[in-house]
Write a structure and sequence with these properties.
Elements (H helix, E strand, L loop, with lengths): L1 H51 L6 E4 L3 E8 L11 H19 L5 H23 L9 E6 L8 H18 L10 H19 L1
Antiparallel strand pairs: 1-2, 2-3
Helix pairs in contact: 1-3, 2-3, 3-4
Amino acid sequence: MHDMQAARGASLSDAHTGPESDVRPVRWAEFATVAVLLLVIDQLTKLWAVATLVPGQPQELIGSVLQLNIIRNPGAAFSTGTGFTWFFTTLSIVATIGVLWFARRARHRGWAFALGILVAGISGNLIDRLLREPGFYVGHVVDFLQLPNWPIFNVADMCINVAAVMIVILSFKGIGLDGTVDRGAEEKTDGKTEDTSEGEAK
């Protein structure tokens, strides 16, 4: 009898811990793979831009829609905060640590991808601020992609924006970091869809 209870307890314990032990490493691996891949792409494209492009001499990549135009940005988007590079560096360090902390809890593939893309973007520009001229912690970020009527950006900036959109979508759908779904948010979304369909039918 005692052996049967012990076996039953062991099976219940395995059923509880098994999925978590299987899921967590997979999501962490996905997060790390996406983050490292995009970070490498960001740094390689910046190295190429520095070696190839000449400041003040833009080159057309897709006509006038997308041009290559290298600048060194000491601040944030739209050249704001140019005198506060140290602040953006500190903020990036804190943000990177925060994303890594959340990534340890991510058991949903969408969140793993979103956080991986986000940390790649943040750390990509952080590396510039730490290691590029004019000096440690106050380095200027290399930007080289230009759209009409838009500030010049880089791959890291693209990552941050894509990740932000993904996070908004996941949150709107009520999907938590652990993969659980907020049924209330899901029902609201379904309700809006049904209302729209009924309105179109009328």
